[in-house]
Amino acid sequence: MIRKTGVLLLAVMLLAPFAGPAFAKDMKAAMVTDVGGINDQSFNQSAWAGMERVRDELGIEVVYMESNQEADYAPNLETLYDQENDLIWGIGFMMGDKVREAAEINPEQKYACIDMFYQDPPKNLVGVNFKEQECAFLVGYIAGKMSKVNKVGFVGGMDFDVIHRFHYGFMAGVKTANPECEVLVQYAGAFDDVTKGKSIANQMYQKGADIVFHAAGFTGTGVIEAAKENNRYAIGVDMDQNFLAPDNVITSAVKRVDNGIFNVTRDLKEGKFAGGGNVVYGLAEGGVDIAPTSDKHVPKAILDEVALLKKDVISGKVKVPANKTEYEEVFK
Amino acid sequence: MGKFIKRLFSGTIGVTIFSIVIAFIMGGAILLLAGYNPVQVYMVMIEGVFGKPKNMAWSVIKATPLIITGLSVAFAFRTGLFNIGAEGQFIVGSTVAALFGYYLHLPPLIHIPLVFVGGAFAGGCWGSIAGYLKARFGIHEVISTIMLNWIALYGHNYVVGMPGFARRTNISCDIQDSACITLFKNWKFSEVGRTWFGAHPILRDIFKTPLNSGFLVAVLLVILVWYILNRTTLGYRLRAVGFNKDAAEFGGINVKKSIVLSMFIAGMLGGAAGALQVMGVARNISTLAAMEGYGFDGIAIALIGNNSAFGCLFAGLLFGALKFGGARIQSPPVRAPMEIINIMIGTIVFFIAIPRLIRMIIRWREKRKGDGDA
How many domains does chain A have? Predict the structure, then answer.
């Protein structure tokens, strides 16, 4: 599947120059992937999908550069600077500092970085963040309602604020749906360790949990494998991961990196670049959501409740905790 | 004809130039197969490397650690050891350099050499573990260095996450300015520096890169390694062990000590490469998901450079240029994916190395036969 898309992409890229004059060459945008590469089935791939939408809908020329190692971030940013792009994206917080450095030394070039919250950034730089806690809250609610044994699990990738937002949002969702429900929590310490994800999830299923939510990138594919083998439920993250195990992934906490990329680039085109600050996308802005395939496994009654809950989160009636302190204020 | 080829292949420089030409032709064939115009690609690469002074600076920056890891592998090879562990030694060197660089507060004149020596020494100790295991227990250094690479990787990741040292998740604190060897590091970000560079765009371009004194150190190390190997008793002894262990022992050389020592020196070089990378380019260390490949590229560089010190210098520069120039092919007008670029670079390296590899195998077999006769 991925290979096929790759070939197709290649074909499109090869043919693109011949289909050239259709696009007005007035604007160019570019992105640098992190070491995960462009076909990582999650973060970078989603970002590139956003760039492709930028190309198709806004007629902006787009390009990406992959990084083999961390030492490639800076030269890749510099190469894209040389090619006079209007906006350069850094994908992922590992690149955050390099993007900021580039922005400081090239004040006339505009930059943006995903998942990076900058402390007073220069005017040509914007940090783009997501309210992961909101989508995690909704999938948590589903898990709380659907657990038959009052026990669910959470597998985190690494112990830092983005994953904490998933963690405490999920806990809050579970407790809102079902205060009796217990949540098992474990961090894998890596985003790329499938075996570890699998063994953690296996343990949780053995302890009796019937639904496990992961926010662990590639590690999480191990969680989904475990769900398949134990014939239990799992909840995916970042993308709609139902395709990985159609009978076991009941929903996914979707983070629309593509929408973030699209919105910021569109704003730039319309002359509203939010430089010198940070933007945060939540449910209200379409930055996060639950997967569209949720209706396959989740009963309609629960989805209706989720829809109501979503409205309350958007209107601010329900405040979703984003970290431990906020969580304990509400649920202790 | 056969005579001509034989003569051509007998001269090292002739062989190298010949194989580089062949290699680029084969790389071009690969590009052609993948549907790209090789002439265009090579033009973009050449423009990418030599087009602007700053691009040349980038190539040199990329080459610096590779030259030194190449030296590390070459040094070990000349003394009869196969150092696959340059990767791990690089990692250990960078970890220790980052720790020394952050926790110590000293004037630059003391701090810079201390961080450098600290990183190199740590790498040396790491290498000598493999040397000791070989000398004492006969454990092959290929096995032990590969294992040590992983220990180094996970140890490194542990250090990055230590409370007090981690600035954010997965990234350590920056080293102090006094340990930094990037040229004009703070000045170029200051108000005065920016105005001055604004008036001198070419210099601004060059110093926008993390240009640092690491390359000079690399050149010094090349000369040092050449001197040790070819002009000192120590080098003679180590090489003698490489040529023939038993003869060396018979000649009164302490073989075990030599093995440990030569792994120590190779490790020091690997560690020095890591330390310079932290001091000059990265300034911090971050969690590694996989090996970064500095040490493994060093193996290819040693091979291309015929295991000679100056050979490594030029092979490293070629590699640095290929890496930096290669990455530029991703963007318009070529837009080749990274995979194609890596295949192309791999093909080029393969065809540069192959005549050498064949000759090495022949020599090795002849030596074997010689051993058998004796």
Answer: 2
pLDDT score of A18? 42
Nearest CB to B293 within list A69, A83, A158: A69
Which residue in chain A is spatially nearest to B51 when comparing CA positions? A82
More confident residue, A252 or B168: A252
The Cα–Cα gap between A46 and A51 comes to 9
Q: Is residue A6 part of a domain?
A: no
Q: How many CB atoms lie within 10 A of CB B370?
A: 10
Instruction: Give the mean pLDDT of A198-205.
Output: 95
C-alpha–C-alpha distance, residues A81 and A87, integer Å: 9
A110 and A32, same domain (yes or no) = yes
DSSP state of A303: H
> Token digits for B262?
């030569």
Under CATH, which architecture does the B51-333 domain have? Answer: Orthogonal Bundle (1.10)
pLDDT in tens, B287-302: 887 888 999 999 999 9
Closest partner CB to A72 (pick from B327, B331, B342): B327
Helices (H), A25-131: 43-58, 73-82, 96-105
Vertex A199: Cα angle to A198 and A201 (nearest 5): 65
Q: Do both A189 and A301 map to the same domain?
A: yes
pLDDT in tens, A248-276: 999 999 999 999 999 999 999 998 898 88
Measured between CA atoms, how close is B79 to chain A, in angstroms? 31
- Which ipTM was obtained for this model? 0.80
Question: Domain containing A222 — which CATH number?
Answer: 3.40.50.2300
Q: Do the domain assignments include residue A3?
A: no
Is A48 part of any domain? yes
Quick one: pLDDT band at residue A238, thresholds 50, 70, 90?
confident
What is the arithmetic mean of pLDDT over A282-301?
91
Residue A2 confidence (pLDDT) above 80: no
**Region of residue A291 (left: phi > 0; alpha: psi -120 to 50; beta: else):** beta
B169–chain A nearest CA distance, Å: 6
Q: Is residue A47 part of a domain?
A: yes
**Nearest-Cα residue of chain A relative to residue B172:** A94
Chain B residue numbers touching A63 (CB-CB < 8 A): 330-332, 335
CB contact under 8 A, B208 and A64: no
